[in-house]
Structures are given as structure tokens and as C-alpha cells.
Amino acid sequence: MVAKGTRRSLHNGDKNHFKPGKKGLKSDLFKPPGFFKKKGTEIFVGNLPPNITEEEIVLLFKDFGLKAVRKKQTSAFKSFAFLDVASPEVVQLAVQTMNGNVVNGQRIVVSVSEERRSPEFKKNHMEMPDLEPVPNGLPVGNGAGERSSKEDKTDLIPKTGIQTAPPLKKNNLYAIPIEMRSSFLVLMLKDCFKDLGWLITICRISGEAGLLVTDTVPQTPFFWAIHLTEENHQNMHKLFSSLAEVESQLPFLAKQDIQRGTRCMAECILGEEGGAWNRCWVLDKVGNMVVVFFMDFGRSATVPLNSLRRLDKDDFWTIPPLAQPFMLHEDVLPPQLMVRQILEGRVIAQSHVETHILRFITKTN
Fold this sequence. Notes:
Radius of gyration: 21 Å
Helix content: 10-25%
Strand order of the largest sheet: 9-10-16-18-17
CATH topology: Alpha-Beta Plaits
């Protein structure tokens, strides 16, 4: 079960103390003055065909002034997306126009993002769904899977008399998101920071910890979070404040200057809280859209090509990535995103497949 939240403000002067609070309480840590621009322009698109690409989603919603697209796929059969559009008025227009349309044989669901929670989830939004196995054929990590800690690992002991095979145990396997794999992170770190020390450092974390969630992969154990230490607290304030200060002064990148591996700056949409300008790394360019990875939030998104600002000065790349990958030890995350919530608990071990992904067990009631 997801743990009790805690709250700490950037401006209360008490940087070393976590105060227990209610479940699901959101943190003020991402809110230096002038940093967030509240928008209310996010829509949720559900029941998407599993093989649909972000580029196809962009074409599908091209008339609504798309600013960002984030697709999530929880299995080979389930896919949904979050879209940031031009204005709150356009949100209503998109819902009225697109909800119920058939796309590749599936009737999609389009709604205002914050309205998509089910009554059951509103009643107890920390209740976890059953573990969801990855269907056959979906790659898991580097060819190996994460096993449930409850799996019976004892050998079959020969017994006299009639031998019967033990009942089959259910193995819960989850595909490790590409952005969490070491092969991906090594490329990003070399291009952006010229240093791989960050991967070594995060492997050393253990014991009691408070984690500020920046992104989740719903219905899996995987999530990105900022480990709430005094050093990270100072880095957050320094980095976010400096980015907010220079955002309007930096020039936009020309199309010909954007290619895979370009380090730059773009607006990361964080749901109903609005957007935050963040350091990013270009993954791919398709037409007038570009896929970027926001390293301080641990998420990728498709944004307009003309929305990237130049951020190549080394001064902005001395602070290592703020967010790092974690996974719940036994549970899975709820189907709703849990951005800006704080989890309290313990880092107990490393992932069996990717040692920089830390297993985290939350405190219970």
C-alpha cells in the first residue's frame, strides 16, 4: 500500500524535518516563485490501440493546439495518453469532439484529466490493484524479469509414493521502461553531463527515505522520484530558480540545430499544476514534433519542434539529474498518476535486473 505523505516547503526555513501528513498530500517542493504556470489544459485519452504511436496521436488531435503528448502502455493490450492542449476552452472542445470516436477499431475515451478517477479510487485512492502480468512477447529488462518476493523458491523435495507436480505459481513480470534502463541512461549522461558518476552514486542509497514522486508507470511497480536529502533540496532550488530566471531570455533552437542528443530546455507539463521549464535531451525528431527526455523528472514527452530553447552552457549541467528510478518492493502503482506526492519508507535492495533501480517499501498505516 502506498504510504503516508509528508510535506515540506522550500520557504519555511526548516530544511531538515519531514512532517507527517495525510495520504496523497502533494508537495510544495516544485514551486519556487514564478516557476509554475497553472493551466488546466490536460486531457486524458483512454482505450487507445496498444500499437498507436505518439506521432499518430499528434495527427489525431492536431486541431487542438497540442503542446505535449505522453503515451503510457501498461500491457500489450492497454494504452492511454495525456495531452496538453492550447487552452481550457480547447479541452472542452476536444472532449465534445473526440470522445467516443473509433480509432483502429477501438472506441477511445476522451475526458478532462482530473475527472477520470473512478468513484472507487476517490474513496480510497491508495488501494492497489491486483498485480498485472506482462503478456508473452513483451520484452522484460535485459531478457530477465522481476519476480514477486512472495514466489515460492523452494526446490521440489522427493517423497515416497505417488509423485504429483506442485501447482503452478503465478510469476508477475513487468517490462522495465526504456528510460530506466542503464543502456539508455549511460547515453544520456555521456551526452549531457560527460560523467557517469550519478549511476554509481544512486546505487549506494539505502535505509529510511522520503521520495518526491515525479512520474509513475501506472499498474506497474516503477516510478521516478527525487530522494529528499538536504543536498537534493538545495540542488532543486538552485536549478529550478535559475531555469525560471533565464527561460524568457534564451533563444529558441532552429530546426536544423535539433538532432538526437541535443541538450536543451523545454516546458514539462505536470498535469493540473501547469508547466515547468526543465533540462531535456532530444531522443528523436519526427516532422514538426520532437521526443525529449526530461532528466530531472524522469519522463519523456512529444513536444512541438519550435518549443525547444537553447541550453548548452555547461553551467546548467553541473547539477546531476534530480530524479532517479525506483520500484515498489511488492505492490504496484494505482492507475492514476501520482505526481508531486511524497512517499515515506525504506530503500531495501537493488533491482535484480538493473542495479541502479532501487526497491522501495512504503510505510503502512
